[in-house]
Amino acid sequence: MALSVDIPGRGRLELHHLVLDLNGTIALDGALLPGVREAVEALGAVLTCHLVTADTFGTARGLLGDLARLALLTPGDEAGQKAALVRSLGREGVAALGNGANDALMLEEAALGIAVAGAEGLSKTALLAADLLVPGPVEALELLLKPDRLRATLRY
């Protein structure tokens, strides 16, 4: 499984994994945002999806079920743990979505970092670490479902 897209001036992007931050990125107050489940399900045909979270609201296990591998963070250095997950998957094949300051290292490590500006806001550090900024998680996931949009935005 892979999602490949040639980006003029940048080269070939070959993604195998999608790392999703939960709260503030694809969920609000512990509940998935509308359209996220369906988009993640569609992406599962080409990418292995990973849900990374400290599970603040205790809802993570039931949100995406078997659509994503759950990576629970332990208290302390959540940013480092998220970045380590990306490295363990092979950073050159990873796309990551996040919004918080603790997502910045993950977004920077990933071959494609997408910052999501949702209802919870977007930290400046996440914004500066990302390759792209989108207004919500569904828009971010649609970039991967329709890679010509990625090409158009990232080309030189």
Q: Topology of this protein?
A:
Blueprint: E1 3-7, E2 11-15, E3 17-21, E4 27-28, E5 31-32, H1 36-43, E6 48-53, H2 60-63, E7 69-72, H3 78-89, E8 94-98, H4 104-109, E9 112-116, H5 124-129, E10 132-134, H6 137-145, H7 147-154
Parallel strand pairs: 3-6, 3-8, 6-7, 8-9, 9-10
Antiparallel strand pairs: 1-2, 4-5
Helix pairs in contact: 1-6, 6-7
Polypeptide structure, described:
By secondary structure, this protein is an alpha/beta fold. Helices cover 34% and strands 27% of the residues. It contains seven helices and ten strands. It has helices spanning 36-43, 60-63, 78-89, 104-109, 124-129, 137-145, 147-154, and strands at residues 3-7, 11-15, 17-21, 27-28, 31-32, 48-53, 69-72, 94-98, 112-116, 132-134. It has a six-stranded parallel β-sheet. Strands 1-2 form a two-stranded antiparallel sheet. β1 (3-7) and β2 form a beta hairpin. α1 (36-43) packs parallel to α6 and α6 packs across α7. It is globular, with a radius of gyration of 14 Å. It starts with a strand and ends with a helix. The mean pLDDT is 96.
